[in-house]
Amino acid sequence: MRSLENIFWLGTKELRSFFRDWVLLAFVVYSFSLAIIAQAQSNSQELHNASIAIVDEDHSVLSRRIAAAFLPPYFKPPVYVEERDIDRLMNTGRYTFVIDIPPHFERDVLGDRKPALQIAVDATAMVQAGIGSGYAAQIISTEISNFVTRSEASIIPAVTLSTHMAFNPNATTGWFSSVMGIINSITMLAIILAGAAVVREREHGTMDHLLVMPLTPFEIAMSKIWANAVIITGAVGLSLIFIVERLLDVPIAGSIPLFMVGVVIYLFFATAIGLFLATIARTMPQLGLLYILVAVPLNMLSGATTPLESMPQFLRTIMQASPSTHFVAYAQAILYRGAGLEIVWPRFAAVAVIGGIFLALAIRRFRNSSAYSS
Amino acid sequence: MKDSRLDTAVHLEHVTHAYGHVLALDHVSLHIPKSCIVGLIGPDGVGKSSLLSLVSGARKIQAGSVIVLDADMTRAAEREAICPRIAYMPQGLGKNLYPDLSVRENIEFFARLFGQARAEREERIADLLHSTGLTPFGDRPAKKLSGGMRQKLGLCCALIHDPDLLILDEPTTGVDPLSRRQFWQLIGRMRARQAEMSVIVATAYMEEAEQFDWLVAMDGGKILASGAPLELKAKTASNTIEKAFISLLPASQKVGHRELKIPPRRDDGNEPVIVARGLTRRFGDFTAVDHVSFNIGRGEIFGFLGSNGCGKTTTMKMLTGLLPSTEGSATLLGRPIDAEDMNSRKRVGYMSQSFSLYTELTVRQNLELHARLFHLPRDEMEQRIRYLLWRFGLTHYVDKLAEDLPLGIRQRLSLAVAVVHEPEVLILDEPTSGVDPIARDNFWELLIDLSRKNGVTIFVSTHFMNEAARCDRVALMNAGRVLAMDTPANLVKARGAATLEQAFIEYLEEAEGASSTRTGDAELVTAVPVKTIHEVSPPKEQKYFSPRRMLAYTIRESLELLRDPIRLGFALAGTAFLMLVVGFGITTDVNSLSFAALDRDNSFESRAYLGELRGSAYFVEEPPIKDVADLQERLKSGQVNATVEIPPGFGRDIRRGRPTEVGVWIDGAMPFRAETIREYLEGVHRQFLSDPAIRGHGALADATVPADIETRFRYNQDFDSIYAMVPSTIAMQLALIPAILMALAIVREKELGSITNLYVTPVTRLEFLLGKQIPYIAVAMLNFVNLFLMAIFIFQVPLKGSFFTLALGALIYVTATTGYGMLISSFTRTQIAALFGTAILTVLPATMFSGMLTPISSITGFGAVLGRLFPMTYFVPISVGTFTKGLRFADLAHHLAMLALFVPALTILSLLLLRKQET
What we know:
The complex is a heterodimer of chains A (374) and B (919).
Chain A: H1 2-20, H2 22-32, H3 34-41, E1 52-56, H4 61-68, E2 79-80, H5 86-91, E3 97-101, H6 105-110, E4 116-122, H7 126-151, E5 159-166, H8 173-203, H9 206-211, H10 217-247, H11 256-280, H12 284-300, H13 313-319, H14 323-335, H15 341-371
Parallel strand pairs in A: 1-2, 1-3
Antiparallel strand pairs in A: 3-4
Helix pairs in contact in A: 1-10, 3-8, 8-10, 8-11, 8-12, 8-14, 10-11, 11-14, 11-15, 14-15
Chain B: H1 2-6, E1 8-19, E2 22-33, E3 37-41, H2 48-56, E4 63-68, E5 71-72, H3 76-82, E6 86-89, H4 103-113, H5 118-132, H6 147-159, E7 165-169, H7 177-193, E8 198-203, H8 206-209, E9 214-219, E10 222-227, H9 229-236, H10 241-248, H11 251-254, E11 274-283, E12 286-296, E13 301-305, H12 312-320, E14 327-332, E15 335-336, H13 342-345, E16 348-351, H14 363-373, H15 378-391, H16 407-418, E17 425-428, H17 437-454, E18 457-462, H18 465-468, E19 473-478, E20 481-486, H19 488-495, H20 500-514, H21 547-562, H22 565-585, E21 593-599, H23 604-615, E22 619-621, H24 628-636, E23 642-646, H25 650-656, E24 660-667, H26 671-689, H27 692-695, E25 708-714, H28 722-752, H29 756-760, H30 765-794, H31 803-827, H32 831-848, H33 862-868, H34 872-883, H35 889-913
Parallel strand pairs in B: 3-8, 3-9, 6-7, 7-8, 13-18, 13-19, 16-17, 17-18, 21-22, 21-23
Antiparallel strand pairs in B: 1-2, 1-4, 4-5, 9-10, 11-12, 11-14, 14-15, 19-20, 23-24
Helix pairs in contact in B: 4-5, 4-6, 4-21, 5-6, 6-7, 9-10, 19-20, 21-30, 22-28, 22-30, 23-26, 28-30, 28-31, 28-32, 28-34, 30-31, 31-34, 31-35, 34-35
């Protein structure tokens, strides 16, 4: 009881300090508004505005129909280029796709001689090259089939594949990246806010002051955790409702309260690791470098940037120990797929346990690291 | 007017200076005579430092005129012309020195800033080291010097260019009395050599001021009086400057001030409250506290007297349990000190050296917070706070923020907070440093009251002699040891000295005679003749750009970086670590996707279809789906990435040539993964259709396209993302850490105060920025080589194109990314803000909007703007181009040119935002 009181009153002090620091406040607002909007609008996850060129050596009706079939928003309008320019244009990265339609292509198609059409793909444009080449092949074969079937008798293809996207019917980037942006911002902010709060107290000498009062390191640590968690939880809630749902029009399938519970559990971990790093770093620059080394991998490998399925097995295994991976997984489950507590609770538990471990480590080192600071 | 200027060193006319709404200088007009020592006296926060920084040109003049040595300091051209003739030593021990650099390197740095060539430099340094007695310590890092030696080094740095005006801001605060005396002897000798040199000194020690030629007494941003010390004393009919100063103060401040009377202490003979036995603390091979023993009785005021760094704070930290002792034991209130013992903590109050309250809270909030943390009952708390506000004279300030309080009031608040729970023991670490004499007396009145009336035991440290004289007993400390311990009167008697200060000096001299770690200043050096080289200062000084001055910063920054192995280690190993993690972790080759099937047909054809799927290297099968509800559940829980449903009669329909449809649901939560799954599934579907076993039915033959569509993955036949991701990751690594290191390097100077050297020496902003940037470019290029080798040997990504082009691109690129950090640092003030800013403004554009994963042409909206303004966007094509596309210089000239544009643009922006004077 006394302990809870201490934690509460110390935490109110954290809140007061936070709301007086305008620069910090501005950064929090930026990371949960403009940064989210920028990521949502980026279209980085889908085929969008891909640049395409066509070398038309056939100059036939069919070749023109193929060119006309590449439409926005997937592709930019195709540009006609000469064959000899292909290398140069692809080298400089002007075009991701170049389609080469050989001479007499239409005649050979109609003559059933199976002519070869080439799609050259810049295989260094990773996200687009893979998806885009499939789209391009699909578009071309559809055009050719339509062209052929119209000139002959129409045949309904016997076996079709009907694909449906569950939870995000058009595979829109914004739906995904807005929420992943929030998750990234949470990791970036929670760690540094909690860590800097400790280093700052140490640099200003107030940490010594607290440690000679009848307060335990646990109480000091918990007060920082709850105060920072309240700030970020508030920012996440507002961002989710006003930026993601209202402004970006992303439909949220699942329960926002359940997601917020998940956010709080994750924040417990993120602030605890921030405190832990603060007990290792002696100065602010050291905290800064440590923070980059921790926050960047936590974010980039969590499955919020590229799919977890693409990582080598050993990294996937390691990342199973990272709460950021679980957070991304349960955020996706709750918000997109409408999963309930019965599905996500094991991941909640995992994050809470890992957070607890870091908190315990931080508390163990607390007194020690303070003693050597000055 | 002209005539009076001739013998005037500094002339101020109606100078007013404000920080926000706080007025530091209020219409100050003053003539300071030439060729003598002028003292600026008054407590902290009365405008002394502001005045000196205006005179030195470090701070921008807001209003009024400042004429120094005939130069108008409001005019940039005149100021720059005169600044080589002024030397300025800012407040704080060695604040403009570089702690990681050795004594010699520090002086060399300043010599280079004043454009001295090697021969001249070395001669001057040898001369200065010799006359300050620092010659034996030439190679010792500045951070390992004692306070007194640090100030001597500061003086060497200030005197390297033979200034006509020497400005010293509290040069002896926190220095032991012996060093203080030696410092003034040194100044005296320097002036003997250069009779025309004027010296302006600010000091809080009134005793020092007695010896100056001319004094200016200041209070509240105004000049109280000026004149020779004797004049001032005569005017106020006082026998000391301290008394003269107090009587000069306006009447309102003197209310209630009287000579402090200390009632004698009754020794109750009970067992001591604090006992230390052989208390020792070592940090590595450095002994901070060396076998210190004492007993302190109930209600006693026990003083610790000594210079900064002599072990006072460490001893106090051991007594509070903040720091475990290496050796020896201590008891507090009869119990051994135990950091975990909550009950004894409730009986102790502690005030640490720095102001340790929350400056962002008001007076009441501070008191309430502490009362709550000590669990005072609510009604008692109200009463106690009201009593404390009254007792400590804080009622007037109750709703003010602590940061807005004058220092003396803050210290009172600190003490009020320390006694909020009525402790039996008070441990106070330099509670009055920087507090004016009257406020100090008031503070001591409170202490005496607590001791005599409430029986509180007080353990206090100080470097003021008159405060030490008020203690019941004092311990004189030096270099971790107690030199002597007794009542002040007995100490004076034992040495047969006139004052406690004199006694302390004698104890110090005795201690130093025993150990030879410090040289007494050899009096013989006074004989060193004034060197003739002093007259041959370089007449031609490059005004706008001097490579030598720039190199001064480069050499200094490099030395600092080399001596901070943690920072350098993070910079090199950290980059390599991130490269490994990101290089292996971020790929777009999606594998081991999980699918589950719902086969409602279970025919040869349906099994063949699923067989194709199982044969695919991309998919991993999960147990089959039972029904539609199960299908939804599995997708929802994320157990499977996709489901495949084969309708009843699938095989029959195929055989009869009737249309049929395979239904697929893909988890669209991650669009990129979903799109990739769709691609893979369509590939599998096409393969099924062209399977001879199926085509054998004949009905399917016509469904195939009458042309071969060949997809050729150029540059990367296997379409393996590592060939694109590793070169892009190199680009990312060369953006993050160099920018952060650079930003911190500049903001650090702002926060630690050495930025003053930019303000008061001839170095220009461009020389400063470029000089500091060069070492970080070097570190980044080292990182580039490292990353390049990792790409080739660890990731096995061969370089197909021109190495020269890649290296050239990298060089321009890291110049741009360090420039990016430089730009951010030019508008941030604190390290934490610079860190935040750089992290937020580099990580997002680097990972999302610079073409690492998605081509630039596809990114739209605000992200596209962020991406195009970030240099990485233009280096990714160079890195990927040379590694994977096999490109050469001509192919990439355009990108190189774009990248090169960033360098001048970022430099010019940083120059515009960086100030040459403090505001």
